[in-house]
Automatic annotation (TrEMBL):
InterPro entries for the chain: HgmA_C (IPR046451), Homogentis_dOase (IPR005708), RmlC-like_jellyroll (IPR014710), RmlC_Cupin_sf (IPR011051)
Tagged with keyword Nucleotide-binding: no
Cross-referenced Pfam families: HgmA_C (PF04209)
Family stated for the protein in its record: Belongs to the homogentisate dioxygenase family.
Name under which the protein is recorded: Homogentisate 1,2-dioxygenase
One GO BP: L-phenylalanine catabolic process
Origin species: Streptosporangium sandarakinum
One GO cellular component, as annotated: cytoplasm
Source organism, top-level taxon: Bacteria
Length: 389
């Protein structure tokens, strides 16, 4: 994260004695990235965060095998047809992935168990409903349109308020704001489409009593369930630049120009060999002869996966794409508006329409995406041929 926060009680200096009311010492836990050379936070526990009583391997509860996108084809998956299943961790239906990132969809009403992803950061987009995100850092209340970004190694759980649907992005590294939005010291620059004020972090500590508390841990070797002697939610205070935060897609400030701007203007976050973009309602391109719709394009170095979260995607009318759809346009395939969409939008502008209503989350990857079992179970087989109608 680009800026410092302090929550709860912390001593005046780092790594000095900080005593509990009973005279004992609070236990420090440094959460740090890249071997003590990047962002970190220092957490103060009432109990030892190292005290575990049991460790056991866990078999995955969902299918996780990936299939190459062969024969090469653009794809359309209908997440609306996936069942309510599991919780916001174990109920994820794998859509697509590679060595850098895995993307899933989940619909659930069930609280998750405590979970720690030690493989990489996660970005969870709440497509509908409301959920309470609880972690060792505190609580974030999240709802429709929120991205919740969770640093590697954060112990957390999700508590839905009724039915929640989410699009999840699991990285093999760290997810951060794009470097071009930040000063060399980490402050958001004036040209950035969002800033520090738009980010919501935990506001106060979360203390939960408990003993012999299980935590599901994901590592590169698989899943393990560790049993902690005391509940991990025992942090009385923390400070630093590494913590979970929420950012609502409606706080993204679209960048517009006279003629159609390419997807990098929508970039919101970056990860290892991928980017996350937010397509939000915005003014249409305003050159008097503009074609206010994406041109046919072939991103020769990337696959493009887009989750259609809301609004009306005029460029895709007639393709079968709807709210909840996911499209995959792989490298090796040129994609663009559906037949007739260009003239239809030009005519709409003549009739006085001046804004778009689209809302979508896009992930561009710089290595090919393989297909997950959940996606293949809800694929629209006719999509690839819709440009030829």
């Amino acid at each position: 994260m680009p800026y410092y926060r302090m929550v709860g009680e912390v001593p005046r200096k780092r790594h000095v004695q900080f005593r509990r009311p009973d005279g004992g010492l609070y236990a420090e836990e440094l959460m740090g990235e890249e071997g003590f050379s990047s962002d970190s936070s220092l957490l103060y526990h009432r109990h030892l965060p190292t005290a575990i009583l049991k460790s056991e391997a866990v078999e995955p509860t969902a299918a996780t095998a990936l299939t190459p996108n062969l024969p090469l084809s653009p794809r359309h998956f209908r997440t609306q047809d996936l069942p309510v299943n599991g919780d916001l961790v174990t109920g994820r239906g794998l859509l697509a992935g590679n060595a850098d990132v895995r993307m899933s969809y989940v619909a659930t009403e069930t609280p998750s168990e405590l979970y720690r992803n030690s493989m990489g950061d996660e970005c969870v987009y709440i497509a509908s409903g409301r959920v309470r995100f609880e972690s060792t850092y505190g609580v974030i209340e999240a709802g429709e349109g929120d991205y919740v970004v969770i640093p590697t190694g954060t112990i957390h759980r999700w508590v839905p308020e009724g039915r929640v649907t989410a699009f999840t992005i699991e990285a093999a590294g760290h997810i951060r704001p794009p470097k071009r939005y930040l000063s060399k010291h980490g402050q958001f620059l004036e040209h950035a489409p969002y800033c520090e004020r738009d980010l919501r972090g935990p506001q106060e500590p979360l203390i939960v009593e408990g003993e012999e508390v299980p935590v599901l841990v994901r590592t590169r070797g698989g899943l393990t369930r560790l049993v902690y002697r005391n509940h991990p939610f025992d942090v009385v205070g923390w400070d630093g630049c590494l913590y979970p935060f929420a950012f609502n897609i409606n706080d993204f400030e679209p960048i517009v120009k006279l003629t159609h701007a390419p997807p990098p203007v929508h970039q919101t976050f970056e990860g290892p060999n991928f980017v996350i973009c937010s397509f939000c309602p915005r003014p249409l391109d305003f050159h008097p002869e503009a074609i206010p719709i994406p041109y046919n394009h072939h991103n020769v170095d990337s696959d493009e996966l887009m989750f259609y979260a809301g609004g009306d995607y005029t460029a895709r009318r007639g393709s079968g794409i709807d709210v909840g759809s996911i499209s995959l346009h792989p490298a090796g395939f040129t994609h663009g508006p559906q037949p007739g969409a260009v003239e239809a939008v030009i005519e709409a502008v003549r009739q006085g329409h001046s804004t778009t209503s689209e809302l979508a989350v896009m992930v561009d990857t710089f290595r090919p995406l393989d297909l997950g079992p959940a996606a293949l179970s809800v694929e629209d087989p006719a999509y690839a041929w819709t440009w030829a109608r």
